[in-house]
Amino acid sequence: MARKLRRCRKKQEIIGQNKQPEMRFVKSLGKGTYGSVDLFSYTNHDGSTLYNAVKISDHQSYDSIDREFRILSELRGCSGIVQSFGDSLLEETDSDGNRVYKMSMEYAASGTLTSFIQRNKKLSDSIIKDFTRMILRGLVSVHSHGYVHCDLKPDNILLFPRYEEETWYCSYELKISDFGLSIKAGEKSHCWTKDSPFVGTPLYMSAESVHDGTTVEKTLDLWSLGCIVLEMYTGKNQWSGFSVDDMIKPLLLDGKAPEIPETVPCVARQFMEKCFARQPEERGSASELLLHPFLIGDQKMAGGSGGGERRRVGLRIRKPPSRLEDVTKTALKLKIVSSKPSQFKKISNKPLKVKFLPPRPPRSNFVPVQ
């Protein structure tokens, strides 16, 4: 009897160890075409509270969330890609008795790139470059596995805050999310139709997607990247408010790209013009764009892999004097001044004072760099 009780206790301990932590709903993070995303919290074994973002789709959108889960599983550990958890989708029944599917992912506490742009309006040149590098690294991961994202836009770029322990300086790590429309390069998209010739969101789609969008290539994502970079500079999408059928589609059919304002720096303009090249092959690849002068022309600021709302000031050292003696052996200047200011019709008979002035210190070798 005692032996049987020990076996029962041991079995209960094993079940308790394998039991998944209870998830508690916190808030809704957003809704999309193929489902919604909610925030859940749970208590870890050590007592700490952790958060996960959970994407939920109904049975009608199963193909989309299943495709996304399989792609994210393949991209686990890749740079610039939001990470999913678990070995399979979780199938449950909602309050109405309908079957739903859930996918657990890491939670981006700083939200999307869209919300970041709205909060900060026009971003600084250094932050835009940092963000562009991280998005491109994510695209390199996607494209190296043979996939095309097909819906790259600020809403699908997530920001993860990173804090320095000593200074609490905040930087950001950007990751690409929402792979519900992603397909293998060269395959035909099921989303493209004659009436709606766009694989993803029309505001970020390339010109060739209107002509022959049935076949999707990796260069489509590079056009979308150009739209994102332009939006970071201007604070808005250049085609927002345009009618898709009356304005955007005709512009793309005529070979037009979003207009780049004159205020955009020249090297950034050249980068975007490459992304907007009419011939897709002229855009190059994500790996090649990482080597563009726009991204390698300056060194990244210290203090984190990503940009932040606060930027540190770096110091650039000018070339020092050829000899230290050139500064220390400068001759003293002699200036003779009277004890009282001279006046007309009156001459002072008091002796003059001699005042020695030290040499003017050399100009500082340190210049603040923004």
UniProtKB/TrEMBL annotation:
GO terms under biological process: pollen germination; pollen tube development; signal transduction
InterPro entries to which the protein is assigned, alphabetical: Kinase-like_dom_sf, Plant_MAPKKK, Prot_kinase_dom, Ser/Thr_kinase_AS
PROSITE patterns, alphabetized: PROTEIN_KINASE_DOM, PROTEIN_KINASE_ST
Pfam families assigned to the protein according to its UniProt record, in alphabetical order: Pkinase (PF00069)
PANTHER family according to UniProt: CCR4-NOT TRANSCRIPTIONAL COMPLEX SUBUNIT CAF120-RELATED, PROTEIN KINASE SUPERFAMILY PROTEIN
Protein name stated in the entry: Protein kinase domain-containing protein
Boundaries of every Protein kinase domain copy: 23-295
GO molecular function, one term: protein kinase activity
